[in-house]
Specification:
Helix content: 25-40%
Protein name: Copper amine oxidase-like N-terminal domain-containing protein
Strand content: 25-35%
Number of strands: 23
Number of domains: 3
Distance between the termini: 42 Å
Radius of gyration: 29 Å
InterPro entries: Cu_amine_oxidase-like_N, Mao_N_sf
Largest sheet: 11 strands, antiparallel
Structural class: alpha+beta
Pfam families: Cu_amine_oxidN1
Strand order of the largest sheet: 6-5-4-3-2-1-11-10-9-8-7
Organism: Paenibacillus rhizosphaerae
Number of helices: 15
Length: about 525
Amino acid sequence: MKKRFKWGLALGLAIMLIVLAGCQAVGGLDVNKAVLSTLDVKSSEAKSSMSLELVPADSGLTAEDKQMIDLINSISLTIDSARTQDPNTGSIEGAVKVNGKQIPFHLSVDKDNLALSLEGMTQPVVIPLNGMEGMEGLTMTGLQMSNESALKMVKDVGGFLIKHAPNPSSIALSSVTDKVNGESLSLQKLHIDIRGDELAGLVKGFLTSVSQDKEGLKEMIAAVYDVYYPIFESTFSQSGEDMGDMAAAFGTPESVLKDKDAAVTYFTDEALKALNEFLPQYDDTVKEMMAEPDMSVILGKDTVLSLDFFLDSKLQIRKQNMDLTIQIPQGEGVPVKQVKVHSQSETWNVNQPVTVNKVDTSKGVWEPSLIGVTPGEVIRHLDAKSDLYRLLTEDAKITQKQISLTTRQNAEDDEDYWYYPEAIIVNNTTMVPIKYVADQLDAQLKWNGATKQLTMVDDLKGTQIVIKEGSKQATIDGKAVTLTQPVINRDSTLYVPLRFVADAFGTKVNWDKNEQLVTIDRE
């Protein structure tokens, strides 16, 4: 428990790198106001880029390590045009670069639909945002929050967090002339550096300040309640479940949760109680955590977040740069010593008339299911000659599957093999549970109880396979096939010969005699 607590604290410290970038007033600049002013932007145009770099370890790299590092380092995102017409309407055009392949994309969204087009897709994807059916029949319409209430909550929460964020040791303000979308502007440049080794002290100051602001904390919790309680209430109302279970998870009766004033008071008191219990042991916990070599590296002086904000006379952020370097502890099998993230962006036409560029859906669309999109469904909507197709099939290998089964008897009682599904041996023929294998290969299945026939449609090739319980006769795309053993039903599970499965689904089979494992591989 203590180790999990320390790792949780470490994760919290890392997250606070971003929060603490808010800071207090610097050189007359009200940073709080400047950051929150970005939430008042109703329309704008922007462009940005982001890249990730893994710095390899000095030694011990395998060929696979180098291949993985090279692949990740090849990934970058460029947004050439991001347009916001109003809080409900926007569009983004840019490209993702991976392993030398550049995939242009175009996304647009309005209050009704999100549309995405990638170069290489035969049709754009369209996801309805109104009236969607979610899991268990919950309609998304009942779960939506208004832009106004959501924006107010973000401003209230953001303002509270920034108000209590102390300044890091390296923070400076200067006047500069810089270009935004080719236009030279007089700007104020706010530069911030936050090192890993100062983070614990900054967080303690932040938490101490929060613990002394009961009214501010209460207002923030009230803002969150106003937005999310109606969503929880709608969710439980549509599902027919009892809200008492959710209330119990918070440790408060349902009647209290339904009463805003009572709920806000309860959560405020609980938060302050937790803070006041935690702060006296904070220093000892951090000291113990930093005594571990890995933590002292991750949260050391070489982990640095550098930020540059360029603000105009209206305190609008017009340009920003971010560089994050995370030092990685070295050891056997660790191929990376640093992770670096770089991003930059610039914004113009702030609160000016902007028109989005909508994705063209006039020639048809693909409306995928929100749950269970298969590799076959994806590649059927791609041009086989495109970079996107090659990226997904050759680099990402989305069609690749590996299924392992054991032929050990009573494997469920063996701690090393209990999680493997069992294959069985019948008259020297290996038989596998066909429904499990077909499900793993994303095949469509249809069972006819009257005829005891199972029909399967292969996800990738569309091959139709039909078997019948108790029979040696099967068909593959209508062609008759004779099995080496009849389909058997054991404990309500149908088993078929392994070789038939391999031929029907176009897979390869490997047998590990020592481990008694059967492996089915699909490329």
